[in-house]
Amino acid sequence: MNGIKRVYWIPLLMAALLAGCGGGSSSSSTGTAQISLTDAPSGEESFDNVLITVKEVWFHKSDAAGPGEAGWLKYPLPAPRTVDLAHLTDGAVSQILDQILPVGNYQQVCILLADTNENNYLSPYNNEVIVGGQTFPLRILSPAHGIALVGRFQVTDGGTLRLAIDFDIGHDVVKVTRNGETEYILKPRLRYFDLDNVGAIRGQVDAATRSAGGSFVFKAEQKSADNTRYVVKRFTGIRADNTFLVSFLPPGTYDVLLRGRGVETVIVRGVPVVKGTVTDLGPAIAMPAGTEFTVNTTTNPTGSWVNFHQTLDNAVTGVPEAPYEIRFRHVDPFTGSFHTPIALSNGPIHFGKYNSGNAISLRAITPTEWAGGNAGFTAVADALLFQPTSFVPFDNTSAGPVFGGRMNVMAGATPYTASGTISSVLGRSMRLDNNILFVVHKGLLVDAYRNLNVPMQMGSGIANAAYATQPLPGGFPGAFYGIDGLGWSASPPTFAVGIPGLADLRTGNDTSANFTMIKIF
Asked: Domains, the chain, ranges and CATH?
């Protein structure tokens, strides 16, 4: 799509259609919020650059506020800032905001990125991925509604909140194919860290491991609150000298999982992290060379992802065990399956305990998921605001895990639908032989629908095309969804993008969640 005609008045039109009410505070007490971006790219994907352009940062004291509601404190950057996430590794951060705020407990920080389909800040796209010297658009879904981070962010009188917002380009920058062309979509699952209350873990693999394997990922994991599984707190990739640094870890005890392509998995248990310090795992760790098998699967909704787990044998470790997350991947939102099959290890897990910086003794353990001698895993499909599936077992004799139908909405939510019409901006005529509709919550992709109404014709005197979603989680205070879309035709070459609408499912179905498409070329 290089060389497409740019439409520079889109931001003005979007601002008119999507303007929300700002908010303020009469409090005279203030503190400072310093907001930075960081990333921990792994070997899942290899990028030269992942460039995003930040325009504004918003704050709100309610976690339920939608993008058009009152109470947002909105701070446009003096000039839009382009950040290369691919280069923010090993604890590097890029500060985007240093702002005085009224004292209070904020529950949302919202980052607004520039529209990808323009190049008024960065050419050829405001947000882009560069791989092997070739540039591709990085699509930001419902950009005018922002990407919201929900948490507890306290601004104290005279104090400074130093917050690092963590992107995950190794997983959340998802490759898709549209009309035979490669693009990328950002499916963010943001995390955050208080820069004044973190430590790090440093380790190293030996040269033989580096030669045998590739796409290394090193994860710091802890048990979930209900002790049913291990969850990844942060991860990183390998450096040129075979070392790795898992940074921005709150104080506590972690298990470090080492995995890579062509090598067998290693787990080091009981690694302490102390605020302001770096814990060294000790001498270089050897990861035995191994073989792999590949699988694929299909999930619904298509905004979902899949975690692959294995569990140590408690008869060997002598303590109760829970599944570790070995691999993770988003599905392609266009298809509900992985863009390419994912590779999993045929080998055992090599387990050892942290030894105060001395050499770690490893023992090979067959995971409990192995069935009949075949290398096995369990998989869990998960999606924003939906209930995760149960653990689905499979092994290297199968094509992959098989999940049931559409996931159930999260506990406490009610299934509601959004529907409406899709019109052409200013009634301009166009025909779209292919289209895809995106449902977005706080900047996070929830679901996508391909070819709802094909061919779709729009323009003066033509009835607006209609759409309807499948059931979405509703009936809770923050049940707002951005409705966005893309459309295209091969002949004549046509490409159109959405000016996002907003669906309100707080109290029931929304039957008037209309949105508009604008023809780019």
From this structure: 1-196 (no CATH), 199-395 (2.60.40.1120), 413-521 (2.60.40.2580)
What is the reported pLDDT for 2?
36
Residue with tokens 């601002």: 15
CA distances 181 to 50, 488, 498, Å, are 18, 12, 19
Query: For the chain, how long is the longest CA-to-CA vector?
Result: 76
Q: Count the Cβ atoms, other than its own, within 10 Å of residue 47.
A: 20
Between CA 13 and CA 498, with CA 124 as vertex, the angle to 5 degrees is 35
Using CA atoms, how far residue 217 sits from 77, 98, 228, 327, 344, in Å, is 34, 32, 23, 9, 13
> Residues, the chain, total?
521
Q: pLDDT exceeding 70 applies to what percent of the chain?
A: 94
Q: Can you read off the two tokens belonging to residue 389?
A: 């599936």
Rounded Cα distance, 4 and 118, in Å? 9
Q: What is the pLDDT of residues 270-289, one digit of tens each?
A: 999 999 999 999 999 999 99
Torsion angles phi and psi, residue 56, rounded to 5: -145, 160
Q: What is the pTM of this model?
A: 0.90
pLDDT tens for 343-367 read 999 999 999 999 999 999 999 999 9
Q: What is the pLDDT of residue 170?
A: 81
Could you give phi then psi for residue 11, rounded to 5 degrees?
-55, -40
- CA-nearest of 141, 214, 156 to 436 is 141
65 in helix, strand or coil? coil
Identify the residue with better confidence: 135 or 179.
135
Single-letter code of the amino acid located at 110: C
Write the CA distances from 57 to 34, 144, 276, 372, integer angstroms: 11, 12, 28, 54
Q: How far apart are CA 343 and CA 327, in angstroms?
A: 9
The structure tokens 């869990």 sit at: 380
Residue range 400-441, pLDDT digits in tens: 999 989 999 999 999 999 999 999 988 888 999 999 999 999
d(C-alpha 119, C-alpha 134), whole Å = 16
Q: Considering only 36-45, 173-182, 214-223, which range has the smallest mean pLDDT?
A: 36-45
**Angle at CA of residue 255, ends 272 and 341, nearest 5°:** 150
- Residue 453 has which token pair? 């109404």
Tokens of 72: 């947002």
Local structure of 210: helix, strand or coil? helix
